[in-house]
Amino acid sequence: MAEAIGVLAGIIFVHECGHFGMARALGVHVSKFAVGFGPRLFTYRGPEVEYSFSLIPLGGFVAFPDDDPECPWPKDDPDLLRNRSIGDRAAVVVAGVLANVACALALLTTQALTVGQLEQTYLPGVRVPVLLGVSAAERAGVRVGDVILAVDGEEVAPTASAVSRMVERIRTSAGAPLRLTLLRGGDEAPQTLQLTVTPDVGASGGGRIGVQLEGACSVSCCFNSRHLCSDVTARARSKHAREPPRGRQLL
Predict the structure, then answer these.
(1) 68: left (phi over 0), alpha (psi -120 to 50) or beta
(2) What's CA 34's distance to the chain center, in Å?
(3) Which residues are marked as active site?
(4) CA distances from 153 to 43, 170, 174, 212, 237 (A)
């Protein structure tokens, strides 16, 4: 809750700074700059502008002396906001939103240059994270963590559609034996196995082997334009790997 309020206060502060900064840059008179409502925590009265921060950071405003009864400038002063051109007034109005957009872009750029960007790379095969206790796959010897590299000698390409293609292949092969090439053991003690699985006929008539499939992938953190990447998760083939939920299907 406190973090959400802090973020909201920051957004409001940047927004009001946009209005205030544009007005000052154009030479428009400003009388007050305030963030928050309720009891005041801080107040500073400058030569022309009064600055204040209040307890409840759920809003803010930039005040102009145009309609202030105590306005120290004559009504025809060219630096009053109402006496400025439509372009100047529009610039002051939209400056708040533009300031928020500029701040967001600056934060994202800073994150990309310092923390880095996550990039997902698909690897050959599809992984088996879940195996039903009584199923065609269990009877054939498939285990949780196995990666299916090929079906009937046809390799499973490293693409985002690998899972859907594998699901379709199994559904259209009800009762027909499928020769699977599996990778077991991950990076610790990898071994390649050949198993034959005969999909059961499901209620809809399609083939089912009783597994959940997900794409095999690695996630890297890339820094700045040089793309210096470091693995932040183990390869999907490892039994300790944490996989993103994208592309998971049960059949």
Answers:
(1) beta
(2) 32
(3) 16
(4) 76, 15, 18, 21, 19
CB 28 within 8 Å of CB 93: no
> Which residue, 188, 236, 195, is CA-closest to 214?
236
pLDDT single digits (tens) 150-200: 999 999 999 888 999 999 999 999 999 999 999 998 777 789 999 999 999
State pLDDT tens for residues 25-74: 999 999 999 999 899 999 999 988 999 999 888 899 999 998 888 888 88
Does 118-250 carry CATH code 2.30.42.10? yes
**Count of C-beta atoms within a 10 Å radius of residue 75:** 10
Tell me the domain boundaries of the chain.
Answer: 2-114, 118-250
140: enclosing H helix or E strand? helix 136-140
- DSSP code at position 97: H
Cα 249 from Cα 251, distance rounded (Å): 7
